[in-house]
Amino acid sequence: MKKNIKKLFVFCVVCFETVLMISQPVMAAKLPQPKDPLNANKAAQSLENRYHVNKDSVKDMGETFNVSEQKAPVPEVDIFFNPSNPKFGEKVTVTAIPKYFQEGVENMYFTWYIKHEGCDLGIKREDANWKESCDVDKNGEISTNDWKIEAMRPAANGGFVKAKANYSSDTDNDGYSAHRGGRVNVQKKDYCYLHDFESGENYEIAITDEEGKDDDSGCDGEVVCTTDETLSCGYDYTTTEGTSSSSGTSTTSGESSSSGTSTTSGESSSSSSSSSYEETSTGSTSSTYEEKTEGTTEKYYNILSNSGYEATCDLETKKMTCPEDATPRCISNEDLDLLDPSCDQFIMCPDPPVEGTDCYKIRHEIGTAEFSCESEAIPEDQIELKCEHQFPKISGMAVGDGSFGAEEENFWGTDPNDPSTIDNENNDEANVAGLGIDKITWTFVPGDKVGVIVEGQSYIPTKHDDSSVAISFALINNIFEKEGSELCKLEKGIYEKEIKGYKVKIPFAYVNINDCLEFNLTKPTSGDQADNMGITMDYYPKNPNVGAMGVDGAGQSKGGDELVVTTNTSDPNVDINQIYYKWSIYGFSGNREDLDLDQSSWTLLSNNELFRKTNNIKLLEGLGMDQFKMQLNTTEVEIDGEKIKFDFLRFFVESEEFFDTGTGTTGTTRSGRGDVMVEPNQSGTGGINISVGEGTPICATSGNCEVLENQVITATLGVNTETSGVNNYLWTLDGKAINTIEEGDTKQGNSVTFLLEGRPGDSHVLSIVANDTTSPGVELENKNKGEKLTIERTFVVTKPMVGIGPNNKINRGSDDVTTCNDLNGNEDETAILGTYSEVTDPADEDVEPDTVLDCKERVSSGNGTVTITPTYYPAWIGEGENLKNVKYSVNGKVIVGTESGGACNKTSCSIDLSSYPVGSMVNISFEAEYWQSNTERFSLKEEWGIGEESSGGKKISDTIIVKINESSNPTITKKASKIIAGLAYNIPEQMIFMFRLMLTVVTIIFAAGLVMSLGKKDCNNNF
Amino acid sequence: MIDIKYKEEKKLLDIETIVTLAIVLICMLLFSFFPIERNYFQEIAISLTFLFFVPFLYIKVILKKRLVDFGFQIVKWKEGFLIMPVCFLIMAFLFYVVFKYTDFKEQYFLGNYEMTSSFLYLFVYEFIAVNLIVFLYEVFFRGFIMFYFKDKLDIYAVFVQFVIFLIFLYMLGEFSLDYIFYMVTAFLAGLIAFRSKSLLYSYLFSIIVLIVSDIIYLKLTK
After folding, report:
1. Percentage, residues of chain A above pLDDT 90
2. What range defines the domain where residue A101 resides?
3. Residue ranges, chain A, pLDDT below 50
4. Cβ(A821)–Cβ(A789) under 8 Å?
5. Which run of H or E residues covers position A653?
């Protein structure tokens, strides 16, 4: 509105200045000179220059001003449903949101209407498809009134139980007089308007008996709405002449016919023909004949036909218009019979026809099209304004008349003793009128449709000389005229009224809005069809890591983050446990620049059994699986023999829920689909290198690292700094940041040194988080590419130990110990105590259980020269120069070893047992001390506060018993020497043996003699 | 009449016989199960003790008999040399059958001994180890057992000592094809000793047969 005023003001200024410029002052001092004739263009140009008015801008403004009235916002209404896809029997609430009305919803009228399935308009009681439940007003015919009552009744009574009320009297005085345009309308006169959304024109709702004369100026004849038709006139024919010779006196004749000319506009042809000939024979031998042959082409003619529609003058375009596709043509009276010509009219015409003749006209054009017209305005007194409410109408019970008695209360089901049955701010009749009722609720049945008529004051000013604004009606589809409908059709006209001394033309139109309601219905999202289930997805953690805990013995990454992907449906009423979910995982290998979202570029991973097993994926589909979990141990998959590492993972979910259509049909489901992409961090690449002391490497780059207590550890990230751009590091030990840095440094680097305290058995987790984030101003290569990694190592504080037997507690179960051996390296079955066997599925014959031999560890067999090889735990204490005072002993006799040289050292010792007899037992012992270097001890003392007594040497020792056995290659000479050696060496033992033997012999002989003597005595006595 | 019957019964089941059988059994058991360290000294010691010294002491101290009554003599040398060839023939036939129709060649324990690669080692084995074993078996089974029961059972004493020898082998766990020649020579040597009243001939027979069987084995397998 303000814009329009502004434009008007500028225009007035321009016009005024133009007038002023034309008036020239008299120049008395000068000789009268012929003045330049008045030039408006120059004046305008001067104005433009003076006020810096750009001509094009003004032109643009003027053009916009011309059509501004058609661009004004007009009242509309939107509705939404909750739930948006209700099921059979579910309560659904529809809410209207009116727009561009002056007042708020509380002051507007909402006339709702509901159409149930089978309640089509016009069905009468006697019809076969009559449904009694649709005839709410009980008038024997289904109309929009039934629809309105069906909606407004429950809106007004809120489900009030009529049985509670006594409708013989009404005590609540709840009548309401409805003002047109809304509760607060105080206009002296109400003008209701309809808006034509196509042309943008606003029409005052009014009717007239007088028909507006259409001035057919320019048309001497009659304006006819014509259509193009096609006339089919059979087939063409050709005429041919020929001669024939014959003898005899017979006269034969035959006939056939075919047309001589053919002017067809058809496109088909056939092959039939017939001929005629006439032969007269009087003894002569020749005759001529004319042959007509029917052609093969079907003849069509384009003609103009009178459609029967009446042409009207379009008030906007000032041109005659016809409904449908008919074209208005001005046809002279004498040419009227050329419309709808017959085939004969074409047949009689020559080809080509002469211009200006009827033949020419019917072949080419009859009359003229595109001619203008003017509609004459009707006087004001001949029109009747029709500004009416659209409330439901009940015979004898008008809504909004200020009277709401018992009968009405009974009809509407409201409480006759409660002025507001639904307990809102309005009384019952106001609620029936729909005052402020911007939402209704009903029990949904598939097939239900709903609409609303909103009545209120718009912002559109009328042209009348008062304060009136247009009272507008808004429909949900804004259809006030439906092409092809006889009833929902705007009857337009113009009436003239004198306003402020001027004849003002006001366009008016009339349509019964009720006739257009069937075109302004909508329904919730397919009540009888399942819609899509809205799905959103999310995942946690946001930066998941792959295989952060290094690799296991098989080289597989392990210990990755547990990734949880969740899916949510937008429908809060859905039962998750009834929804069937199916998950799938896809992978993409490449960097972000190559990333392609087309699914065909992604590889399905979830069908790979090894991938599922490695990443602890159990379920992929099932009921209620709105959450998917996996452990990101690896994203490397072997496909067709090639190992591919996938940099991106994409999780797809499909959901299905049974949908009850309420119509008895089954098999319908609601489905949803969603996906989310995850870029996990590929950790474990490179690992962490661990060293102690002065750079002695310990442990492998991955896996658990056994260390001693009070040890200073140096951890270095093992990435290639040339190819990797990571330059920011965060080292943490058991979750706490390690803040030890080198002197001069201000941030953590790729290496960190820390003290690992704790008692044997304690474990600690060292982790590093690194990325390549750099501030934009810093010029560095390979930065800010999103590279990041997270790696963890577990340290286990342990007590140092050593084992010297071939099978000892340290190498027990290790991969390279598969047999029980003696000290000579031979397999010794007598050393096997048993086997530890893993329990596996007996039904799975392919799986072989892992077994660990249980061997004798304290006693071993051996002979000759044996090699004692200590096994250290942790293994790295045997490396470096930290083992001191290495000693081997045999039966308590020391064989002094050195750290690195000599026959016996920390690595091994060869001991000759040949001097010991077979069967004897020999004790072999080993002991040593592990010392940290003085530098390390000093550092512990000064930097870490660990006293010297705590960093002293740690003793390790072990003893085994060797049972001397026979050599597998016995020789007589060796045996002889052994006998002698054995005898010489074991005399005390043999002496004992002999003594035992002698005792036995004596006992036997003595016993025998005693028995014999007793027996003989007895015999002698008996004898 | 009554005195004769009584005297016959007294000879077979008298206390002396029972004690002698008990001594035999005790010696065999102690030989098999006496606890020793696995060294040659002790093994030889118990062999000599229970297969020679104990029977010797029993005969001399308890039975108070002469050793010549237990085969320690050379009397009927003709008988000895006459019967030996017959026994050799029988053994020859046994050799044929055993080597031809059994898997003795594959399982005989002598094949596992490295000593067979050297003649010297083989000689020492055969003439010291085997010799000692044969001598002890002759003394115990033929000399002690057979000659003791010879007076009571006559020719059946040969079978008795044979059966006891088999029991002995069974106790040692050596009742197998490896010792087939030992078993057969035990019987035939018993016959020879019975006829010749001397252990010498049975000893010679046994030692020859066992050495020859080893030689034949080595010949056939090496």
Report:
1. 16
2. 76-197+380-519
3. 24-35, 213, 215-216, 248-283, 526-529, 548, 550-551, 553-557, 684-685, 898-901, 970-973, 1023
4. no
5. strand A648-658
CB of B128 less than 8 A from some CB of A: no
Tally of structural domains, chain A: 7
Closest residue of chain A to B13, computed from CA coordinates: A1015
Report which DSSP code applies to A694: T
Verify whether the Cβ–Cβ distance A993 to B36 is below 8 Å.
yes
Tell me the shortest Cα–Cα distance from A1001 to chain B, in angstroms. Answer: 6
What are the angstrom distances between the C-alpha of A351 and each of A347, A831, B64?
9, 124, 170
Q: How far is B21 from chain A (nearest CA, A)?
A: 11
The 3-state DSSP composition of chain B as helix, strand, coil percent (nearest 5) reads 85, 0, 15
Q: Are residues A61 and A83 in the same domain?
A: no
Tell me if A979 and B57 make a contact (CB, 8 A cut-off).
no
Please indicate, yes or no, if residue A202 is contained in any of the structural domains: no
Do residue A811 and residue A948 come from a single domain?
yes
Residues of B in contact with A1012 (CB under 8 A): 15-16, 19, 62
The count of CB pairs under 8 A between chains A and B is 77
B contact test, residue of A916, A969, A972 with most B CBs within 10 A: A972
For residue range B8-54, list pLDDT tens digits in order.
444 567 888 889 999 999 999 999 888 887 677 888 899 999 999 99
Indicate the Cα dihedral angle A734, A739, A745, A746, nearest 10°: 110
User: Is A670 in the same domain as A629?
Assistant: yes
Chain A: nearest CA to B178, how far in angstroms?
A: 21
Tell me if B62 and A1005 make a contact (CB, 8 A cut-off): yes
Q: Distance of CA A617 to CAs A608, A620, A631, B59, Å?
A: 11, 8, 7, 88
Radius of gyration of chain B (CA): 18
Q: Which residue reads 């009276």 in tokens?
A: A333
The alpha-carbon gap from B49 to the nearest alpha carbon of chain A, in Å, equals 8
**A859-862: strand order across its sheet:** A859-862, A954-964, A921-930, A883-890, A893-896
Distance of CA A770 to the CA centre of its chain: 33
Nearest by Cα to A749 from A779, A719, A776, A781: A719
Tally of CB atoms within 10 A around A142:
25
Residue A207 lies in a domain: no
User: Does residue A272 sit within a domain?
Assistant: yes
Residue B22 to residue A989, Cβ atoms within 8 A = no
Q: A514 and A452 in one domain?
A: yes
**Nearest residue on chain B to A982, alpha-carbon basis:** B39
- Enumerate the residues of chain A whose CB falls inside 8 A of the CB of residue B30: 1000
Residue A183 resides in a domain: yes
Residue that is last in its domain, among A323, A344, A375: A375
**Looking at the structure, do residues A370 and A386 belong to the same domain, yes or no?**
no
ipTM for the predicted complex comes to 0.86
- Is B59 touching A (CB cutoff 8 A)? no
Contacts B125 to A, Cβ<8 Å:
972
Q: What is the DSSP string of A76-90?
A: EEEEEEESSSPPTT-
Please tell me which of the candidates B38, B58, B114 has its beta carbon nearest to residue A971. Answer: B114
| B177: exposed, middle or buried (Cβ count in 10 Å: 0-12, 13-18, 19+) | middle
Residues A233, A344, single domain; the answer is yes
Contacts of A1019 in chain B (CB under 8 A): 10, 14-15
CATH of the domain at A751: 2.60.40.10
Looking at the complex, report in whole angstroms how far the Cα of residue B30 sits from the nearest Cα belonging to chain A. 9
The CA-to-CA distance between both ends of chain B, in Å, stands at 66
Q: Is the pLDDT of residue B113 over 60?
A: no
Using the Cβ of A1006 and the Cβ atoms of chain B, whether some distance falls under 8 Å is answered with: no
CB contact under 8 A, A972 and B34: no
Q: Are strands A202-208 and A502-510 parallel, antiparallel or unpaired?
A: parallel
